[in-house]
Design a protein that fits this description.
A hairpin with a 4-residue loop joins strand 4 (about 85-95) and strand 5 (about 100-105). The chain is an alpha+beta fold. The chain is globular, with a radius of gyration of 14 Å. The protein contains 3 helices and 5 strands, in the order H-H-E-E-H-E-E-E. Helices cover about 35% and strands about 25% of the residues. The chain has a 5-stranded antiparallel beta sheet. It has helices at about 5, 10-25, 45-70, and strands at about 30-35, 40-45, 80-85, 85-95, 100-105.
């Protein structure tokens, strides 16, 4: 997610570029970009599905951050990765947006890809 590190996270162009960069990746099924309030601003999902999906993952994120704060209050969440047999969900927070990615779960480690 190089775009998240190279531009100020404040413009619609930034959101669009981040969305396109992630969506173009191999095995990516869906992308939801949330604003700093946790509301979907761009999504490949139907609006109602994006709202419900992002709500579930924002709840998990909040619980995880509260739990991690008890371990080390100076630490911060950089990425949350949840994997099932067939799917993988990545949650990547930024200073102004959060990117949620749903992709097909694959073992690419044999090919040298993370």
């Amino acid at each position: 997610l190089d775009i998240l590190k190279t531009q100020p996270p404040r413009t619609l162009r930034y959101v669009e570029e981040a969305f396109q960069q992630v969506k173009s990746r191999k095995n990516v099924r869906d992308v939801v970009i949330l604003n700093d309030s946790g509301h979907p601003v761009k999504s490949s999902m139907h609006k109602d599905d994006a709202v419900q999906f992002s709500g579930h993952f924002q709840a998990i994120r909040g619980r995880l951050e509260r739990g991690m704060a008890k371990i080390d209050p100076t630490d911060e969440l950089l990425m949350l990765r949840v994997r099932t047999k067939t799917n993988e969900v990545l949650l990547v927070p930024d200073s102004k947006i959060t990117v949620l990615v749903v992709q097909n779960a694959q073992d690419n480690f044999e090919n040298g890809e993370p």
